[in-house]
Every structure is written in C-alpha cells, then in structure tokens.
Amino acid sequence: SLKMASDSPESLMTLCTDYCLRNLEGTLCYLLDNETLRLHPDIFLPSEICDKLVNEYVELVKTDSVFEPHESFFTLFSDPRSTRLARIHLREQIVQDQDLEAIRKQDLVELYLTNCEKLTAKSLQTLVSFSHTLISLSLFGCCNIFYEEENPGGCEDDCLVNPTRQVLVKDFTFEGFSRLRFLNLGRLIEGVNVETLLRPLASLAALDLSGIQLNDVGFLTQWKDSLVSLVLYNMDLSEEHIQVIAQLRKLRHLDISRDHLSSYYKFKLTRRVLNLFVENLVNLTSLDISGHTMLENCTIPSMEEKMGQTSIEPAKSSIAPFRGLKRPLQFLGLFETSLCRLMHIPAYKVSGDKNEEQVLNAIEAYTEHRPEITSRAINLLFDIARIERCSQLLRALQLVITALKCHKDDKNIQVTGSAALFYLTNSEYRMEQSVKLRRQVIQVVLNGMESYQEVTVQRNCCLTLCNFSIPEELEFQYRRVNELLLNILNQSRQDESIQRIAVHLCNALVCQVDNDHKEAVGKMGFVMTMLKLIQKKLADKTCDQVMEFSWSALWNITDETPDNCEMFLNYSGMKLFLECLKEFPEKQELHRNMLGLLGNVAEVKELRPQLMTSQFISVFSNLLESKADGIEVSYNACGVLSHIMFDGPEAWGICEPHREEVVKRMWAAIQSWDINSRRNINYRSFEPILRLLPQGISPVSQHWATWALYNLVSVYPDKYCPLLIKEGGIPLLKDMIKMASARQETKEMAR
Known about the structure:
Layout: H1 2-7, H2 12-22, E1 29-32, E2 36-39, H3 47-63, E3 87-91, H4 97-102, E4 110-114, H5 121-128, E5 136-138, E6 147-150, H6 156-161, E7 165-168, E8 182-184, H7 194-198, E9 206-208, E10 229-231, H8 239-247, E11 253-255, H9 271-280, E12 286-288, H10 302-305, E13 329-333, E14 347-351, H11 356-366, H12 371-387, H13 393-406, H14 411-424, H15 435-451, H16 455-465, H17 478-489, H18 496-509, H19 515-523, H20 526-539, H21 545-558, H22 562-570, H23 573-583, H24 588-602, H25 614-623, H26 632-645, H27 659-672, H28 687-690, H29 699-715, H30 717-726, H31 729-737, H32 744-750
Parallel strand pairs: 3-4, 4-5, 5-8, 8-9, 9-10, 10-11, 11-12, 12-13, 13-14
Antiparallel strand pairs: 1-2, 6-7
C-alpha cells in the first residue's frame, strides 16, 4: 500500500490549495492599496478548505524557498462569516502575535502552536477568545508565550537607556477552557506554576509535560478518572512521581522516556517500577521507557531465549515484568536501552536500535518533537542503508524526507539525513521509487543546500544529486539547482571534493538541454564562474578533474548558444586557452574539451573575426597534426579552420601563415584520419556542419563537413541517419555532387 500511496497523484483538493496559495491575488484575493491582501467579497469557504489553506501555507513558507510569505495572510480569515477555521497547525517563526489576533473570532477546536518562539503573552490573551470551543491545544516549544514586555515608567530618555524588559506572566490560567481535553505544554519555560495553570481544567484526557522539571506531580490525580495519555519525557522522576502515575488507572499511553545524553538523572528504572505499572495501569496499550538505565536485571535467563521463533505473547516475554500484561502492547519504546535487543518483546511496534524495523519506528515516533533523538535514529538508519540493504525502503525514505522538512534548521538532522538520503536513493533502490518521491527528495536536498553553508551538508547534498538522471530529473528545479551550484563554486574558500562534484553536476546540467536553458544559465554567470575556476587551477599549475570538467562544461554551454560564446571571448577565454595549451601540452582530454568549445565559437559568424590573428591561426594549424585523443583534437581544430575558411579569402586579414598553406595542412590532416574512427563527441544537430556543404568558396571546408557526416552515419547509423534526413541533409549532398567546384574525393564520399 505504501508503494501505491507514494505513486498516486496529488488529490484535486491539494492541487487547488497549492495553486491558490501561490496565486492568492488572482484567485481568492485582490490587493488593497497595493499592499494589503483582501478576500473577494463573494467568497465563502468552509473549514475543510480554510484549515487546509492555513496548514499548507505554513508548510510552504517552511519548506519552499521560492514561496513568499504575506504580511496580511491571516487577516483573510478574520471574519467567520466568510471563512471558517477549526483545526490549524502553526509552526516556528512563521506566526506572530498579530496573526493569532487576526483570527480571534474563529471557533477553533484544535490549535497546535509548535516552536512558535515569536509568540508572547499577547497571544495568551488571544487564546482566551478560543476558550469556549478549544478541545486540543499545543504550546510545545513556545518559549516566550509566558513573557510580556514591561515598560518601566518615567521619562522618554530613561526608556532609551532601559529598553523593555521581559517579565514572566504569573496570573494566566486555563480558567474558562471548559472543553479542553488535550494539552501539550512541552518545553514550557521555567517559573510558570503548572499546577495553578491547569487546575481549572475539569477533565483532561491527554497531557504532555515534556522537558519540564516538577518535583511534585500529585496534582495529576485530580484527572485520574479521565487521563488516558501522559507524556513526561525528560522529566527527572522520583519514587513520588511513580506512586502518582500508578494511581492514574485510566492511562492507555504513558511516556517516561528520556534523552540519556542530555543531563544527569538520579532516577533508575527497576523491576518493581515496571511491575507496578503492569499491575495498576491495566488499560495500558503504549509505554515508552527509552533512554532509561535498568538498575537490575529484568530479563529472563537465556535458556528460554533459545526456544523457537520470536513471540509477542506476554507469557513468553524476555522482559520479566511484562509477563503480567493481559495482551501485547501496541507500542513499546525501548530506544537506547539494552532491552530492545532481547528476543521476545510483547509489543506489535517497538522503537529501538536492534534492527531496521525498530529504528524506523523510532524515527516515526520522535521526529516531530524530539529532533535530538531522531538524529541519532537516522544515523543508525544511515549505517543500515550503507552496510546492509534496506527492506522498507519507501517507508525509510518518506521518514527521512519528513524529518528533513520538519527540522530545516537542525544541523544534526540535516547532516545525518542528507547522508542517509545518499544511500537510500542510489541505483540499487532506483526501481522502487516513483517520480513523485524522487522529486520530494530533490526538494529537501535543495532546501538543505540553501539553508546550510556547512561543508558536510553541502557535500552530502551534491553527492545525492549525483544519484539522479541529469538533467532530466532535475529539470523541474533547473534554475534553482544551477544557482545553488554556482553559489558553491563562487565561494572564496572551497572544499576540494565539493568543488569537484559541483563542477561535474554543472557540466551534466548543461549537457543535452535546450538552448533557452543554456542561455538562462549563461546569464546567471556560469561562463565567468568556470573561467575563474580554470584561472585558479592554472595559477596552481594543476590540471585535475575540476580543470577538465570546467572546460567540458564551457564546451556544452556554448553549443549553438552565441551569447555564451561571446561571453567566453569577452572574459578572456582565448588567453586562458593559450595558457592551458602551453602549461599542459600532454593533457589530451583537456585539449579535446578546449577545441570542442572553440568549434562552437567558430560556428558564430559575428565572432569569427576575433579568431583571425596570426597567433590563433598558427595554434589551430599546429593542432591539425595532434594525435591527442584519437582524431578528436585534430578534427576539432580542422572544424574551427573550416568555418574560418568558409568566410573566403577576403576575410583572411593576416600575412602569416598563408591561407593556401593552412588549406594544404587541412587536406593532409583529413586524409590521415581513419574513416571508421569511434567518436568522443555528441551532436544534437548537424546544422553547423550542413551549412558548409552548399558553397564553392572553400572546398576543404566542404570536404571536412562531408567527412564528418560520413563518419558519423557509418559508425553510428541508428543515431545519426535519422538526424541527417530530418535536418534536410540528403538534398544538400545531392546538389553538392553536381557542383563543379567540389573535389572528386568529396563527391565520392557524398555519394
């Protein structure tokens, strides 16, 4: 079912929501005074649609760098007569006091505010306006919501010296929140009296007090008949806590897990504590004791371990206290405890570090609120993907994508997540992945590259992109990918390995793409960036992959793109060409790439006069004799000269070398090539070659063009015969055979 889920197209609802949010002005809204968004007066939307608009908006602002947030977005939902909100989830810096204030007239049933650090005590007052309808509320990580700004009285000057101080609000309680059942106060600021805050709530069903230190939790017993879920993650427990928990007999979910790295805990789990839970909390279906140290041995001796298959039957449990369970637990959290490695664990789902299933359960359970745990779980997944084979690939990928999206600014998750993605997207898993899923991977990889200048993240992201078919799979984010890569290559201090991968990617991105793509990338500064890299390498006297890829990328990006050819000349590309030739006389790959590029420049009539100097013509003529890379260097040098000759004797504005002398050397070169040579070159179009056929000014250019076509169609007939026919080569060849000026051997080849 997962396979199907990841493959099916987005629902029409999702597509419409996304479209409207990206085009608010022009769908739902108009702009008032050129700045404020206003809803069209004839629009009435139910909560199913409004909730989705708000929740998707938050998601887009968070994960899509191109999406622009709107100052006045939340004001669109200020009037319940036209827009209804019921269940909304807001996150992080996206939401401010005035945004909540804007929607205060709505009858919210569910409001999740996660890590909204910009909210202050003003928003506590706004919450009161939802008090009569609110059933579910999360203030997880809203660390400033209990602070208000106190402005000390006195003169204006004094205020400048002593700006607003933050003061803790002590008098707020949930008085009047008569329907509130589910409450998450995770990571609440110290100094707030939790007991006073909660006392007015009549019947709490779920309470999350993650990361709060309370010495006395006796007040929890006031909900012993209603509380079904209690989370005390990272609370330092004591015997008193345990006794209180044991009285909450309606509990179905209990989480007393902790991060064993975060600080020193006195509390140790014992067999007696687990027994107490099993005996008293008879409705328990989910228990999390991750990160705890067991003070004594709770395990059944290993003799019984050897018996038969693994079992989730409580009677066979390897953890002694759990033999008292009436039925297996739905979930048991054992991450970073020794218990997860036992054989018989009486639970359908276990989080732990023993195998892939347990690790994926951990990532799934802890991603939203516990990035510190999640990053360690993803690290374990990374090892599994690297060393063994992932058996639940789609689930693993989806979980890592979710974690990377959810914690865009968490360095640990970005490092481990991007590394795991590299192994999860490599070729052996390719078949199992849908286009949609692979696009999601590309999106989070680019997000990571954008948010993090950190070397490891950048390297992991670049490596992951190499697992995709380029340019096809990156086409939908073409501009953005190129901008990010050029950004990496333009940094003054560079990591060698990242530079190498980034240049390789740049080269692949401009290979075999449409000319408008190449022009766009040229305008981004691609040509300049490559030439700078070449300049640096030249200064270091090194001809490595970066040097070769940079020339290759220039060869690709100038193909049939005159603007980029002109940029190459304007930024002293020819000077670098000559210097590289002189510095690295033996580097065949390099010579081939450089001459391929100059072939592209020579195809542009307006630029050819710039190649007409004694120095350049001599260099090209001497390269006719080159045996570098088979015939490629000689062939490309001859191509450059063929285009120059095509402009006729009057364009030959130099005394040395003589035109006839160069022509003679060209004939000799062409005759020395093996007509069956296999080629290191890729033509997307024959147009620049075909234009040399119907002319009598330069028979040698005509001969070079005919040789080129003959070689390509005879060695690679499947690829090049259709191209020759499609581009109208046949009539041109037939006409040329009738021309008096054409040489006999040229006509023979044409036939």
